[in-house]
Amino acid sequence: MSHNIVERNNVTITGDGEIPIIFAHGFGCDQHMWRFITPAFKDKFKIILFDYVGFGNSDTSAYKSERYNTLDGYVQDVLEVIDALELDDVIFVGHSVSSIIGALASIKEPQKFKHLIMIGPSPCYLNDPPEYYGGYDRSTIEELLQLMQKNYIGWAEFFAPEVMKNEDKPELTEELEESFCSTDPVIAREFAKATFLSDNREDLPEVDVPVLIIQCENDSIAPLRVGKYVHSQIKDSTLEVLPANGHCPHMSDPELTIEAIDNYLKQDLTRS
Q: Is 3 a catalytic residue?
């Protein structure tokens, strides 16, 4: 079973250290997106990369709509990978929706996690005025989902620049667009629906492990006010705002992202 999960999720293990650090990709991406980040941690950590079922080089035949039509299926992917590798005290680095997936996994099995590092988290993308503004009206999300169904390539061409928001680095936008386009449109749409229509605000106070929130100053997908909201709801959390644009600082501004993670983990090592 363990071997099957390692193959199913295309698990890759590198690094010379013993402390396990898992990097979990965001919507429409795969583990390759972490290549600018992971070399900085290879000396001190055991680095675990994987692809969610249906993405990257995972076993797409394992995809079942009834499992993955909510975030719970992806939470199960994370916990099964951790169990298959017999890991404890995991540092879990999640980008975008994986921040929330990691949070939900830590609520289910807190003993498995030492820290959560959230890059651009959003517990709810929908506006819920007057108390909460996630950035999108429901009608906008519905239009995006309809566009995915009618013209998937057109959706990818529109959405990739919105996510990356680094016009001076067009190669990153192109890479993200290609990643979107290489994913099965049905799987991508179901993941998008699970991501953009979920509301996990009530789960945040249940997170019982220390959390670092990395937030870009200018992010239209998960705005700064959302990062501040996540920080206010998780009792043991640190908010680090990067002077950066877009939703993918691990690709567009890897040095800043590495510095934020490294400083946070150094503090933890000093405490212990």
A: no
Whether pTM > 0.85 for this model: the answer is yes
Residue of 51, 58, 77, 96 marked catalytic: 96
Q: What percent of the chain clears pLDDT 90, i.e. is strictly above it?
A: 96
| Catalytic residue list contains 59 | no
Return the CATH architecture of domain 2-123+200-271.
Answer: 3-Layer(aba) Sandwich (3.40)
State the catalytic residue, choosing from 115, 247, 252, 253: 247
Catalytic annotation present for 272: no
Q: Domain coordinates of the chain in residue numbers? A: 2-123+200-271
The SS3 of residue 210 is coil
Q: Between the CA of residue 210 and those of 117, 152, 235, 242, 272, what are the distances in Å?
A: 9, 38, 8, 19, 14
Query: Rounded to 5 degrees, what angle do the CA atoms 31, 95, 207 make?
Result: 125
